[in-house]
C-alpha cells in the first residue's frame, strides 16, 4: 500500500479528510478550465465534492486507489489532488491543481515525489499516466518527472467537457529494468 502521506519541500500530500470537501469544491472541482481535460464534469455543488471525498476514502479502504490532497506547507492551502491506482505490477497516476497554483512547479514537485516512491517499490514495474492529446501542460509535466512518451491510445477516454466521444490520449510511462 502507498503511504498515507508524502512530504516535499513545499507540499504535504496527505489522505483526504471529510472536511476537505468544501476546499476541493472552491479551489478546483467547480472550475470548468481546470476540469476541461478530466473525465468528469465540474462539481455543481459542495455536496458533489463531499460525495467524491467519501468515494476516495472508500477506495483507500478497499485498496483499489490511493488519493492525496496537496497541501501547501507554509500556508496550509489545499491546492489539488493526486490519485494512484495499482493494478498488479503497474501504477497509474492522475492529478489536478487549482488554477492559482499553476506554473509554480508545485505539481512537478508533488508528482516527482510520488514517482520516486513508486520507483523504489520492487513490485512495481510500470508507472504510467495518460493525458488528452491537447493537454500540453500535462504532457510536458510527465516528461519533466521522467516518464517517456510511448504512444497514442486512440479513442481512449471520454473527456466530457470537450466531447461526448472518446478522444485520443498520450500514454507516458517509466518502467523498471529491461525485458
Ligand atoms: C496539468 C497541471 C497539473 C500542470 O501543472 P502546472 O503548474 O500548470 O504546470 P506548469 O505551468 O508548470 O506547466 C508544465 C509545463 O508545461 C509547459 N507549458 C505550460 N503551458 C504551455 C503551453 N501552452 N504550451 C506548451 N507548454 C506549456 C510549462 O512551461 C511547463 O514546462 P517546463 O517545466 O519545461 O517549464 C495543471 O495545469 C492542471 O491541474 N491542469 C488541470 C487538470 C489536468 O489537466 N490534469 C491532468 C490530467 S491528465
What's this model, at a glance?
The protein has helices at residues 21-29, 32-35, 46-62, 106-119, 136-144, and strands at residues 5-7, 11-14, 66-72, 78-87, 90-97, 126-132, 148-158, 166-175. The chain is α+β, with helices and mostly antiparallel strands. Residues 34, 37-38, 95-97, 102-103, 105, 107, 131, 135-138, 140-141, 144 line the site of coenzyme A (COA).
Report on the structure:
With 179 residues, the chain is of the alpha+beta class. 30% of the residues lie in helices and 34% in strands. It has 5 helices and 8 strands; from the N terminus they run E-E-H-H-H-E-E-E-H-E-H-E-E. An 8-stranded mixed sheet has the order 1-2-3-4-5-6-8-7, sandwiched between helices. It starts with a strand and ends with a strand. Residues 34, 37-38, 95-97, 102-103, 105, 107, 131, 135-138, 140-141, 144 line the site of coenzyme A. Coenzyme A binds next to strand 5 and helix 5.
Biggest sheet statistics: 8 strands, mixed
Count of helical stretches: 5
Radius of gyration: 16 Å
Distinct bound molecules: coenzyme A
Strands, count: 8
Order of helices and strands: EEHHHEEEHEHEE
Low-confidence stretches: none
Shape, principal axes of CA atoms? globular
Question: How helical, in percent, are the residues?
Answer: 25-40%
**Largest beta sheet: strand ordering:** 1-2-3-4-5-6-8-7
Mean pLDDT over all positions: 97
Structural class: alpha+beta
Separation of termini? Answer: 25 Å
The share of residues in extended strands comes to: 25-35%
Amino acid at each position: 500500500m502507498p503511504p498515507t502521506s508524502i512530504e516535499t519541500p513545499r507540499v504535504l500530500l496527505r489522505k483526504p479528510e471529510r472536511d476537505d470537501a468544501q476546499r476541493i469544491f472552491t479551489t478546483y472541482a467547480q472550475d470548468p478550465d481546470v476540469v476541461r481535460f478530466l473525465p468528469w464534469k465540474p462539481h455543481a455543488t459542495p455536496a458533489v465534492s463531499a460525495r467524491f471525498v467519501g468515494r476516495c476514502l472508500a477506495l483507500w479502504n478497499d485498496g483499489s486507489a490511493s488519493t492525496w490532497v496537496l497541501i501547501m506547507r507554509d500556508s496550509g492551502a489545499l491546492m489539488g489532488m493526486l490519485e494512484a491506482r495499482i493494478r498488479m505490477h503497474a501504477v497509474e497516476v492522475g492529478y489536478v491543481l487549482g488554477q492559482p497554483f499553476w506554473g509554480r512547479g508545485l505539481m512537478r514537485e508533488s508528482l516527482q515525489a510520488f514517482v520516486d516512491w513508486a520507483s523504489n517499490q520492487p513490485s512495481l514495474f510500470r508507472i504510467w499516466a495518460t493525458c488528452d492529446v491537447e493537454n500540453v501542460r500535462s504532457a510536458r509535466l510527465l516528461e519533466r518527472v521522467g516518464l517517456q512518451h510511448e504512444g497514442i491510445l486512440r479513442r481512449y477516454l471520454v473527456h466530457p467537457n470537450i466531447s461526448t466521444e472518446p478522444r485520443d490520449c498520450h500514454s507516458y510511462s517509466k518502467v523498471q529494468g529491461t525485458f
